[in-house]
Design goal:
alpha/beta, Metallo-beta-lactamase, Chain A, seven-stranded mixed beta sheet, six-stranded mixed beta sheet, 8 helices
Length: 311
Amino acid sequence: MSVDRTYFEDGRIELTHYGSAAWKITDGKHTVLLDPYFTRLRYSGNRFGMLPANAAPGDERPAYSFDEIVPSDAETIDRHIHEATHILLSHAHFNHCMDMPHIAKKTGAHVVGSYSATNIARAYGVAEPQLVPVRGGEDYDFGELSIRVIPSLHSALCDKCYFDAGIVPEGLQGPLPLKAFSEGGTFGYLVRFRHHEILMFGSMNYIEREVQGLTPSIVLVPSARPRLQIFRYTERLLRATGLPKVVVRSALGRADLPLRRGPEQRAGARRDLPERGAPGGTRGGAGAAPAFRDLLGAAGRPGGPALTVSR
C-alpha cells in the first residue's frame, strides 16, 4: 500500500533504470514508474514484431509461447519496488504491462494508460478508482504533480514491418496468455514534478508535432537498434524539445534476459546536475551532447546506480 512520504530535503529527484523501458522516478514524495517490467521471460515464436528470444549462454529458463499464461515474477518485483504513486504505461504489450497489476495492487498507485492497458488492470482485479484511462492529449493535475499524455508511436521493429492494430477488450478475466497483450496505442508522458519536467517514452519512436515546443528539463531517450529505422531520431527529438539540459539514454537492450540484482548498486556513481534554468547549465547545440555522453554509464545502464538530479 502507499505510504505517506515527504520531498527530499535538498529538492533532488532520483531516476533508476531497470532495463528494457522500465524506470522509477521519485522526488521523495511521489514515485512514478514507467513500463515496470521485471519478469523478463524468454519467449518463442514471432508476434508483435518481436524476434524469438534465443537463450543466452548459461540461460536454462524455459521459452514460453505466446499462447501460454505466464505469472509475474513477484519475488523480483518485490525486491525492487516497494512503493509507487503513479504507474505510466506506454502501451500494453506484455513486456511493458504484464507486471503492472501486481505492482498496482501492492501499492495502490494510479494506473495511467490506454483503454487496453486499463482493461488488463481490470482483468487482474486492480481497483477501478486507481485506473486513469487515456487516449492521448490529456493533461491531468494530481495536486503537486501533473502528467501530460503525449500521443506517440511504437518502435519500428523488424525493419519497419511491425504493425499491431489489436486492442485488449473489456470483460476479460486474468490470468491472460501473452498473445492477449496487444499494443492498444502508444503514448509518451511529460511528468511535472516540483522542480523538474521529465519527458519519457517506452518505445523508440515519437510524433514530432506532439513534442514540438515542449521544454522538459530532462528527457529519457529509448535507444536500441530499432531507433535507426527513424529519420534523425535523436536529433529531431532534441531540437523539437529545445535541447533539454539533461538527456539520458534508456538502453532497452535484451528484455528477455533476467534482471540482475540492482538496488544494492544504487549507492554509487550519483551525479548532481543543476535544475533547468539554474546557473551552470548549458543549452544550445553544444549543450545537450556532453550530458548525453556523460550519463550513459549511470542511469542508462540496466540495474546501475540511480541518477540524481539536484534542485
